[in-house]
């Protein structure tokens, strides 16, 4: 069985991580003090919780995770929160000085102080690592320099991330208002919604999900395959024509677990879709536009230069973003043109 290490970095990363572990505990019947409601390994031979949790002493379970942020507020919330027994204090890493939302301040100066601490803790936890990156957009950000930070971070991690998920804050905010009827969504609402997505993505790692075990499961698979066939026939979704396309479907036995008092109602079935889509070019373009507006006036650039950054890094990051945006746009255009030619031939 694989063992996963979760790394939660930055203000939003730590808060989203907290929301994720809240859901994990509910899903695996682990109390906030780390004690399991019933010993699943004895009752049913279920040890799926070991993928994310480590067993300490006296039946206590703790998270296999590292939390790191330069500003101590969110880390202090973990120390004093109801789930503080789940986190080892050595794995909650912070310093007393905030990066003040300046990427260079965290990347070049203050951040260097905790790199060794973070790497040391990861090394201690390392067994097998599942790594995914989440990039957030700046639509609901409270920091005016967020476009700088997002593009500089994307530039720095572009060659090092094996799997990245785009989290559109504005889209999640709209879901809370329009679909969940949340009057004034807070970051807690957004983070819990993201936590549900992370839970769904990792469900296949943690819970049983063999296909076609009985007639009921077989029927469920037929329904899914029929829906996919309908989508392909109607062509309501356009697929690129230059690489194999298809659907990877997995059915998991575990019903969705909802946080008490949260925005989502308790249901028995749910679906989570992850798509590699050229539509992400719009998000890159929107972010690039905001970056360009500020950078054209050299707005706030001096804050970054004071921390040791060179102005050329802004241009380089911007060029990378433009190139990335163009790759997605060209991929989409080629596919649309190919479909147009096919229609003409018919």
Automatic annotation (TrEMBL):
<feature type="domain" description="Tubulin/FtsZ GTPase">
    <location>
        <begin position="49"/>
        <end position="209"/>
    </location>
</feature>
<dbReference type="InterPro" id="IPR000217">
    <property type="entry name" value="Tubulin"/>
</dbReference>
<keyword id="KW-0547">Nucleotide-binding</keyword>
<dbReference type="InterPro" id="IPR002452">
    <property type="entry name" value="Alpha_tubulin"/>
</dbReference>
<keyword id="KW-0378">Hydrolase</keyword>
<dbReference type="Pfam" id="PF00091">
    <property type="entry name" value="Tubulin"/>
</dbReference>
<dbReference type="InterPro" id="IPR036525">
    <property type="entry name" value="Tubulin/FtsZ_GTPase_sf"/>
</dbReference>
<keyword id="KW-0206">Cytoskeleton</keyword>
<dbReference type="GO" id="GO:0005874">
    <property type="term" value="C:microtubule"/>
</dbReference>
<dbReference type="InterPro" id="IPR023123">
    <property type="entry name" value="Tubulin_C"/>
</dbReference>
<dbReference type="GO" id="GO:0005200">
    <property type="term" value="F:structural constituent of cytoskeleton"/>
</dbReference>
<dbReference type="InterPro" id="IPR003008">
    <property type="entry name" value="Tubulin_FtsZ_GTPase"/>
</dbReference>
<dbReference type="Pfam" id="PF03953">
    <property type="entry name" value="Tubulin_C"/>
</dbReference>
<feature type="domain" description="Tubulin/FtsZ 2-layer sandwich">
    <location>
        <begin position="138"/>
        <end position="289"/>
    </location>
</feature>
<protein>
    <submittedName>
        <fullName>Tubulin alpha-4 chain</fullName>
    </submittedName>
</protein>
<comment type="similarity">
    <text>Belongs to the tubulin family.</text>
</comment>
<dbReference type="GO" id="GO:0007017">
    <property type="term" value="P:microtubule-based process"/>
</dbReference>
<dbReference type="GO" id="GO:0016787">
    <property type="term" value="F:hydrolase activity"/>
</dbReference>
<dbReference type="InterPro" id="IPR018316">
    <property type="entry name" value="Tubulin/FtsZ_2-layer-sand-dom"/>
</dbReference>
<keyword id="KW-0963">Cytoplasm</keyword>
<dbReference type="GO" id="GO:0005525">
    <property type="term" value="F:GTP binding"/>
</dbReference>
<keyword id="KW-0493">Microtubule</keyword>
<keyword id="KW-0342">GTP-binding</keyword>
<dbReference type="InterPro" id="IPR008280">
    <property type="entry name" value="Tub_FtsZ_C"/>
</dbReference>
